[in-house]
Amino acid sequence: MTPLVPKVLRIALCLALGMAVSGCYVLRTSSGGAEADFSPPRHVDAADIALPAGYRAEAVVTGLTFPTGIAFDDDGVLYLLESGYSYGEVWTEPRLLRLDPGSGELQQVMGGGRTGPWTGVSFFEGDFYVTVADVLHRGKILKIGPDGSLDVLLDGIPSMGDHHVNGPVVGPDGFLYFGIGTVTNSGVIGEDNLQMGWLQRHPHLHDVPGEDIRLRDRTFETPTVEGNKTSPNGGTGAFSPAGTAAGEDQVIPGAVLATGSIIRLPTGGGEPELVAWGLRNPFGLAFAPDGALYATDNGYDDRGSRAVWGAADHLWRVETGTWYGWPDFSGERPLTDPQFKPPGKPQPQFLLARHPNVPPAPAAIFPVHSSANGFDFSTHSSFGHVGQAFVAQFGDLAPNVAKVMAPVGFKVARVDVETGDVEDFAVNRGTRNGPASLVGGGGLERPVAARFDPAGQFLYVVDFGVLTIRGEHMMPRPRSGVVWRIWRDQP
Amino acid sequence: MNAIKLLRPKLLFGLLLAASLVAACGTARRSEPIAGPLPLTEPELAAGRQVFLQRCHQCHPGGEGGLGPGLNDKPLPDFLIRLQVRKGLGVMPAFSEEQISSTELNDLLRYMRHLRRHPADDAPAGS
């Protein structure tokens, strides 16, 4: 009997070693940043934000409800955007607000009723350009004058699904560039879309490619919607409505307003043009000092009928006419690589019979589920790191997007786009990373946009506020949004 | 004799468990705002950082926890890290020679040790 004991101990030792090395991913429960207990009001204290030596931060505006965007007019006056909608199916009124430089009061320039989310704003030659997802109807691009005049530059954007229309920015060519996120996680309508809330509203919505594509024969088991109820129904194909199967060699027609795309539009109005596609959720767009367009792109989640595990977020240098890999690649890597197989779920297989091109290498790779969103480039030596990008990372939505072993994101990262080097720039203090609602203190919650003032001396960070998850229910907290300002006071 | 034979594995197990617990008590945070800039004084360290950013950062951001566990607070010996990189373990994928060459793996291990020891005593802290 005695020889058995050492053998048992050896097995236990091997198991302990394995657990220590692997971190026991499968056995552990998720530990994301949204899984916090929170009781309002939000405590705000810039001293709880850690920055590189010589930099300082302060809160400029507090008490905002779901802020998403920031812009400056020709006089350097600050304008803010409140979304009017948040994941979790919470509606308020979207608003464009002006921060009066004299009184410090917020004045409403434009309200949007129930057309949220308003996801981003840019100012160009006297007007504001706002991306309006309007998840109840269809997405739009609004042109708003400082006096409150309104012009709908573009209507009919398919932005009512998982991801929205985002990131308006005017390029050196004078065109307005914006991104359209995909309807789904990875090309197929699934039960996750019911949980998001939009499939009941838009039962026929589906992804649209940027050019005609031919599908492989892949059918997924997906519930369909009848009225407002769900019923099991086998057979939903890629780029197809829920409950509609797709056969082998089926051709899905492309469109200019593709999902997972970047579009450009004359600022005076006119025909939209497809710039690039095959992205997933191109949230942030910005032009580098050399005139090149870059875009952040949120990677796949471990959810739905075609779950993908371990897919990073990316920063792309956007080349016109290029396909960036969605729904079959993550960065340069095919989803058929075993690294993307979710534990206990099938290995993703290709959906497209032929890929338009080999996806290019990303300019930078961000952590899985960090939600790399709005960003801007430093252009002034007084702030430093000229030519580098400062990227707001909204932070994970675990466990809805996947299980994580520690909070991911909830910070501002600095990126050298020439080398792909990514370094933290603004994080919360403490022994672990995460939003202030989880780790304590009055620092960052969910940075969603970052933009320099016109002089390039101050980096403004839009912090969406507290968003927690209980079970699968997302709970965004109104009046918890903040705008932070960061500057360097010592060279 | 039997008692000694029994004791050794128990002792080893206990030591390993204690080491894991002690290691898990430390923080994995090493990024510039927390620990000051990480000096990359040798080309191998810079090369190792590039491998880390391409292959490791996405699941272990800056060596902290994320999708995967933190690395900076786990003083695993090089041979175990090599083994895990080449063979994979649990949900972590294996990386072939084609994906991470032997030279790159050496640079990566050197960088990870350097990062784990950061900050050096004379490094400026973040504000």
Write a compact overview of the structure shown:
With 491 residues, chain A is mainly beta. In chain A, 6% of the residues lie in helices and 36% in strands.
Description:
The complex is a heterodimer of chains A (491) and B (127). Chain A is mainly beta and 491 residues long. Chain A has helices at residues 4-22, 191-196, 436-439; strands at 49-50, 55-64, 67-72, 78-82, 85-86, 90-91, 95-99, 106-111, 118-124, 127-132, 139-144, 150-157, 165-170, 175-180, 213-214, 220-221, 224-226, 229-231, 234-236, 251-252, 261-266, 273-277, 285-287, 293-297, 313-317, 329-330, 333-334, 364-366, 372-377, 389-393, 411-416, 421-428, 447-452, 459-463, 467-470, 473-476, 481-488. In chain A, the strands form 12 sheets. Chain A has a 5-stranded antiparallel sheet with strand order 1-32-31-30-29, with no helix packed on it. Chain B has 127 residues and is mainly alpha-helical. In chain B, α3 (43-55) packs across α5. Chain B is globular, with a radius of gyration of 17 Å. The N and C termini of chain B lie far apart (59 Å). Chains A and B meet through α1, β28 and β32 of A and α1, α2 and α3 of B.
